[in-house]
């Protein structure tokens, strides 16, 4: 299952066996023993590959022909795709979807091979040793679709409200794969009473056309945290009166606006109470099955959380689907964490970052739960070169989506040079853990400094705050890494933020413990970032009940 709902009725899906042949590959191209591997999964889930970093080859045979679309929801982190021994696609970045269009393939059994590399190789600018683990494998679903001569490539929905009437701006892109011109008619339906009918259009051979129109919806119910009302948006392409392709997505009518220091959802001020969450689970690595995602959602709801940050990369779309359904707001973040100026000068940094941003926004644009896009967590925003990188990435994001505000989490108190570029100021602070200062005093000093910058009249989010604790480690002396100290520090940090009228909210670091790169072992007990309020198995620490109590208090 790649989504929580059916995305096509006309377009056909080709089922493939989820058990693939798998073997490791060394730097000389020598293959190891062939074993079986479930797709999707992390190869680290296999007992003999728990710490394997390098290359591997996935192979699968199945029968198909004609025009085919191969969709890879996530391959970690470098992929080379081959069909019948012929190279057809390269993709870099573990956390974004990509596809391959195959035209006029002979009908027969074909061999699909995916060579995957999760090493920190010289071409990789974003996947570097870090405070989370770069798992290996085909970690998200693979989808194979049968296409006709034309198909719907894109369907974007942008809601807005004027004089208490909701407007739906629809943009869809249709592709003609054939060598002949095709005459098509396109219909867009939101519900039984609201539809857009485009005039018949002739598409030239091997071309694509954009269809764009707005529609007033007088009966729309708002999407909110309390009532996450969803609608099915259906696009159908017709040729000679017959449907030849379709695409279905889920959308919601809601507005996100910035008004002074406030973030408004449907005109009402947001008070964000949430967590940073890594896609990491003890048994599954980053390839979480739907049941584990659902469990995380239920835990977030039990804690009283109303938002989540996808630190530090785009998430599996099924998790975003769940957030849509449950009314959990999402700060979705492009992939990058803690990069120095030297790392941002990597020859591939600009392109790989732009590809990640484009693929994230293109594929996740319609999710009503996403209220902001983020970039470049704790990167070199304090240097002139770093500022140039932030400026380029914000410019690209605004080209791709004008409807959402932009932000990035900084830890450069007193020297960040980018606060004029973003819409929401976000800072990571750890008073009581990394330095001894009362949280209220540190927050006061942070606000005073922001008031002297271009960020002075913008909303402020505390994007990270927290303390570490090893599950089960208790002590009356409240030493470092005890659950007792974590509970005490979190109580002071979170309360000080939520009591502050100038703060739009807090994202606790973090939801659950996660594995870190081996290079980070010296600062991370058990080779994990242990700042979760639950451990990597989702067992509650002492701080769980304390955070739940605080979130309940600040409803």
Note the main attributes of this structure.
single chain; 555 residues; Immunoglobulin-like; 3 domains; eight-stranded parallel β-barrel; 8 helices; globular
Rounded mean pLDDT score: 97
CATH class of the largest domain: Alpha Beta
What is the overall number of helices? 8
Q: Could you tell me the CATH topology label of the largest domain.
A: TIM Barrel
Name the overall outline.
globular
Sheet with the most strands, sense and barrel status: 8 strands, antiparallel
Q: What level of helicity do the residues show?
A: 10-25%
Q: Structural class, from helix and strand content?
A: alpha+beta
How large a portion of the residues is in β-strands, by DSSP E? 35-45%
């Amino acid at each position: 299952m790649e989504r929580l709902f059916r995305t096509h009725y006309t377009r056909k899906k080709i089922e493939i066996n989820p058990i693939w042949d798998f073997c490791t590959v060394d730097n000389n191209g020598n293959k190891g023993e062939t074993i079986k591997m479930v797709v999707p999964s992390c190869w680290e889930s296999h007992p003999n590959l728990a710490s394997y970093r390098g290359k591997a080859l996935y192979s699968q045979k199945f029968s198909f022909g004609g025009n085919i679309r191969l969709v890879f929801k996530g391959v970690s982190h470098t992929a080379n795709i081959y069909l019948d021994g012929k190279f057809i696609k390269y993709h870099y970045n573990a956390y974004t979807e990509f596809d391959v269009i195959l035209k006029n393939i002979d009908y027969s059994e074909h061999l699909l091979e995916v060579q995957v590399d999760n090493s920190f190789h010289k071409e990789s600018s974003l996947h570097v040793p870090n405070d989370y683990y770069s798992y290996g494998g085909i970690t998200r679903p693979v989808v194979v679709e049968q296409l006709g001569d034309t198909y719907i490539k894109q369907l974007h929905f942008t809601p807005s409200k004027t004089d208490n009437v909701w407007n739906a701006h629809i943009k869809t892109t249709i592709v003609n794969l054939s060598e002949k011109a095709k005459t098509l008619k396109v219909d867009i339906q939101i519900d039984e009473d609201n539809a857009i009918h485009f005039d018949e259009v002739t598409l030239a051979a091997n071309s694509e056309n954009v269809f764009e129109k707005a529609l007033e919806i007088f009966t729309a119910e708002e999407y909110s945290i309390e009532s996450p009302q969803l609608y099915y948006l259906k696009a159908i392409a017709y040729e000679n009166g017959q449907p030849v392709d379709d695409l279905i997505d889920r959308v919601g009518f809601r507005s996100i606006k910035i008004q002074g220091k406030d973030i408004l959802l449907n005109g009402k001020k947001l008070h964000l109470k949430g967590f940073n969450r890594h896609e990491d689970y003890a048994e599954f690595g980053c390839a979480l099955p739907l049941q584990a995602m659902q469990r995380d959602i239920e835990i977030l709801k039990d804690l009283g959380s109303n938002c989540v940050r996808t630190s530090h990369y785009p998430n599996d779309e099924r998790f975003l689907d769940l957030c849509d359904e449950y009314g959990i707001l999402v700060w979705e973040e492009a992939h990058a964490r803690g990069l120095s100026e030297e790392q941002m000068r990597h020859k591939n940094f600009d392109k790989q970052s732009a590809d990640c941003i484009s693929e994230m926004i293109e594929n996740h644009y319609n999710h009503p739960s996403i209220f902001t896009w983020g970039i470049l967590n704790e990167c070199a925003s304090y240097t002139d070169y770093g500022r140039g990188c932030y400026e380029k990435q914000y410019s690209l994001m605004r080209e791709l989506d004008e409807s959402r505000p932009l932000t990035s989490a900084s830890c450069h108190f007193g020297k960040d040079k980018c606060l004029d570029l973003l819409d929401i100021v976000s800072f990571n602070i750890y008073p009581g853990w990394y330095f001894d200062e009362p949280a209220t005093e540190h927050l006061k000093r942070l606000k005073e400094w922001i008031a002297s910058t271009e960020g002075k009249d913008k909303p402020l989010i505390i994007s990270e705050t927290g303390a570490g604790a090893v599950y089960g480690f208790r002590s009356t002396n409240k030493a470092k890494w005890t659950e007792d100290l974590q509970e005490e520090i979190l109580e002071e940090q979170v309360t000080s933020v939520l009591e502050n009228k100038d703060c739009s909210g807090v994202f606790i670091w973090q939801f659950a413990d996660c594995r870190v790169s081996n290079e980070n072992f010296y600062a991370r007990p058990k080779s994990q970032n242990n700042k979760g309020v639950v451990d990597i198995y989702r067992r509650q620490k002492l701080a769980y009940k304390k955070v739940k109590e605080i979130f309940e208090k600040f409803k």
